[in-house]
Amino acid sequence: MHVFVTGGTGLIGSAVVTELLGNGHTVLALARSEASAQAASAAGAEPIRGGLADLDVLRAASAQADGVIHLAFANDFSSPEALANAVAEESAALAAVGEALVGTGRPFVTCSGTPATTGRASTESDPIPADGPVGGRGRAVTGVLELASRGVRSSAVRLPRTVHHDGMGGFAGVLTGIARQSGVSGYPGDGTQRWPAVHALDAAVLFRLALEKAEAGTAWHAVADEGDQVRDIAAVIGGRLGLPVESVPVETYGPLGVIFAADQPSSSAHTRRVLGWSPRHLGLLKDLENIQP
């Protein structure tokens, strides 16, 4: 397939592009800067200049592709307002791509987060939240899945709280960044809450599998580790950086604090069984040993 990819030069997107190219697909990559365009070209993709706000670019690229994988997001968590703006921008972009694909039968793979459930690991059959700090993303992804009734082979790959590679990425990466700045490797609450995780290279395989064979309107979990306790994550970070490991106020994490404090393990048993996905790269705690002091 000739696949249009948004966010193709990020931590996850670059792995997805490499995975697609290595399995016989070609890639048209959205590039919002010249540096991103050059990175896409160097990886073997064809860049198309634009960002998520450029709806005409998104429509045109989607119309000429055999399938679409969406990964781009502003990732601005500096304030509730900034996060809301990022969610609104992505929602409009997803709607534009979806409209371009209506009636084509082509695959449209988007991403979301794994949901949190009380007292157990979440599964692919659990709904994603439509409220809270990122509830708008949940509503937008639900809209993509509903395109199944309009002739789009839409699916969603749900990403865990940390998608990592070489000790970087995801919620664990945020903990690392704050630890470097504050001098404390912190965790919210008592640290017994669990976060699921996956290596970016394993996540990339699942995005390809969803593109190639997921049925319309389905959701899949890119979860390798069902849930590491946050204090264990913080302990590895503290050990690598030579910093004390302590509980810190939830407010330390801004608009993400309520999410950071939640227990949210997740399962991928259904995904592994149906799509044949089998993660094989380092788990989170082992990969965090790659953090540079």
Automatic annotation (TrEMBL):
Family annotation (SUPFAM superfamilies): NAD(P)-binding Rossmann-fold domains
Organism of this sequence: Amycolatopsis roodepoortensis
Domain NAD-dependent epimerase/dehydratase: 3-218
Superkingdom, natural source: Bacteria
Record lineage: Bacteria, Bacillati, Actinomycetota, Actinomycetes, Pseudonocardiales
One Pfam assignment: Epimerase
Gene3D superfamilies in UniProt: NAD(P)-binding Rossmann-like Domain (3.40.50.720)
Compositionally biased region (Polar residues): 115-125
Protein's UniProt name: Nucleoside-diphosphate-sugar epimerase
Segments of this protein annotated with the region Disordered: 115-135
